[in-house]
Design brief:
Layout: H1 3-13, H2 18-25, H3 29-36, H4 44-54, H5 58-61, H6 64-102, H7 106-124, H8 135-163
Helix pairs in contact: 2-3, 6-7, 6-8, 7-8
């Protein structure tokens, strides 16, 4: 039995609505619905409250299959965010080249928006369960982003100065 089925059964066996359960767990009804449809798992603090409320262990609530399913969902979300980040990077490069060759300051706005989008989605693309554990991993990651941003920023600034 999946986590969603377990939580729904516990809730209905105790004659609770999703709204009532949400209030007892200090979450939204939408969160409870998400859990019951296996679109996510609750945070550890919510799991503890569920465990106490229904007098079951956390191990009884969450099986290895549930954890694997959540990992797969997180990986899928991370890949989507990664491709969106790459799209923003492409937009940034495009607007930077247009700014440089067509020498219109308005392309700097698109370039700046692309940089912001790229950085935002690049950060969101890291899966939750993967941490930067060693300096040898994080240092090249940070250096690559800084170099990329510097190249784009210098190109934009030089072009704007040339136009000025």
């Amino acid at each position: 039995m999946k986590f969603g089925e377990k939580i729904k059964k516990l809730r209905t066996d105790n004659n609770m609505t999703q709204e009532e359960l949400a209030q007892k767990l200090f979450v939204t009804r939408t969160a409870v619905s998400k859990w019951e449809t296996d679109k996510g798992l609750p945070a550890v603090d919510s799991l503890k409250l569920i465990s106490d409320l229904f007098h079951v262990t956390i191990d009884e609530l969450v099986s290895d299959d549930d954890i694997q399913t959540q990992r797969v969902l997180d990986e899928k979300k991370s890949k989507t965010m990664y491709f969106v980040a790459i799209g923003f990077l492409a937009v940034t490069v495009l607007f930077t080249l247009l700014l440089y060759f067509l020498q219109s300051v308005y392309f700097a706005i698109g370039s700046a928006a692309g940089v912001v989008g790229y950085v935002t989605f690049a950060v969101l693309s890291k899966p939750k369960d993967r941490k930067f554990s060693a300096a040898k991993v994080i240092v090249p990651y940070i250096i690559a982003r800084i170099v990329l941003l510097l190249i784009i920023t210098v190109t934009v600034v030089v072009t704007i100065v040339k136009l000025g």
